[in-house]
């Protein structure tokens, strides 16, 4: 039995379908949105529609942008000889927050996942190979997540790029800063040992 009108239930369902939003969070968001003055609610809706209409993939790296080429690819100070391959646009933001990486990116828009029926043809791999084939790239850094799908994707891309004279590397993974070894899982400790560096 529903306690609210169908329109509210529909709004909650749509919000709950977003990643990381459960039913209770969706309900809070729905009631907050409904409590806004009509002008603010319309502004949020219009902003979402405008972004949806204007955002496209960068011609070079496949990152999201509102122009033909994204700001990172347009930046002449970025090292075009190093390409960091990530699964999603949000991963670019995560790496940029560290302010250490000065190369460019390539966004796959997913990972190989047979369970979800996502294969290599569903990813932006043709564009990546095209960039490598043009020459001038010395290193491709695989920065997919250290889960089975991310590892499968990284391995596939490494094999795909093997005919080209390009070094393929993988981000090092290990024990997070500030954590305790006793709480690290076996896979994390294995990665930490494999990726150890001279002190």
Q: Which structural class do you get from the secondary structure elements?
A: alpha/beta
Question: Helix and strand string, N-terminal first?
Answer: HHHEEHEHEHEHEH
Strand order of the largest sheet: 4-3-5-6
Give the terminus-to-terminus CA distance: 63 Å
Assembly status: single chain
Strand elements, count: 6
Q: Rough shape?
A: globular
The CATH topology annotation of the largest domain reads as: Dna Topoisomerase Vi A Subunit, Chain: A, domain 2
State which percent range the strand residues make up.
5-15%
Can you tell me the residue ranges where pLDDT is under 50 for at least 5 consecutive residues? none
CATH class of the largest domain: Alpha Beta
The CATH architecture category of the largest domain equals 3-Layer(aba) Sandwich
- In DSSP terms (H or I, runs of 4 or more residues), the helix count works out at 8
* Helical coverage, percent range: 40-55%
Please, could you describe this protein's structure?
By secondary structure, the protein is of the alpha/beta class. It has two domains: 6-54, Orthogonal Bundle (Helicase, Ruva Protein, domain 3); 75-170, 3-Layer(aba) Sandwich (Dna Topoisomerase Vi A Subunit, Chain: A, domain 2). The protein has helices spanning 6-16, 23-35, 38-54, 71-74, 89-97, 125-133, 148-160, 186-194, and strands spanning 56-57, 64-65, 79-86, 103-107, 139-142, 167-170.
Note the main attributes of this structure.
8 helices; 6 strands; two-stranded antiparallel sheet; Helicase, Ruva Protein, domain 3; 4-stranded parallel beta sheet; Dna Topoisomerase Vi A Subunit, Chain: A, domain 2; alpha/beta; 199 residues; single chain
């Amino acid at each position: 039995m529903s306690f609210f009108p169908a329109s509210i239930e529909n709004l909650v369902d749509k919000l709950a379908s977003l990643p990381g939003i459960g039913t209770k969070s969706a309900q809070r968001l729905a009631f907050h949105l409904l409590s806004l003055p009509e002008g603010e609610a319309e502004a949020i809706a219009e902003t979402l529609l405008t972004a949806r209409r204007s955002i496209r993939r960068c011609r070079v790296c496949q990152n999201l942008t509102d122009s033909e080429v994204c700001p990172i690819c347009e930046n002449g100070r970025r090292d075009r000889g190093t390409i960091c391959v990530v699964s999603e646009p949000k991963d670019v933001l995560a790496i940029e927050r560290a302010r250490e990486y000065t190369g460019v990116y390539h966004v796959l828009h997913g990972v190989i996942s047979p369970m979800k029926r996502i294969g290599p043809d569903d990813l932006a791999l043709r564009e990546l190979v095209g960039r490598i084939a043009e020459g001038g790239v010395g290193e491709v850094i695989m920065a997919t997540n250290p889960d089975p799908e991310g590892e499968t994707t990284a391995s596939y891309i490494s094999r795909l790029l093997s005919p080209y004279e390009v070094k393929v590397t993988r981000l090092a993974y290990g024990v997070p800063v500030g954590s305790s070894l006793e709480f690290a899982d076996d896979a994390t400790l294995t990665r930490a040992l494999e990726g150890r560096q001279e002190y």
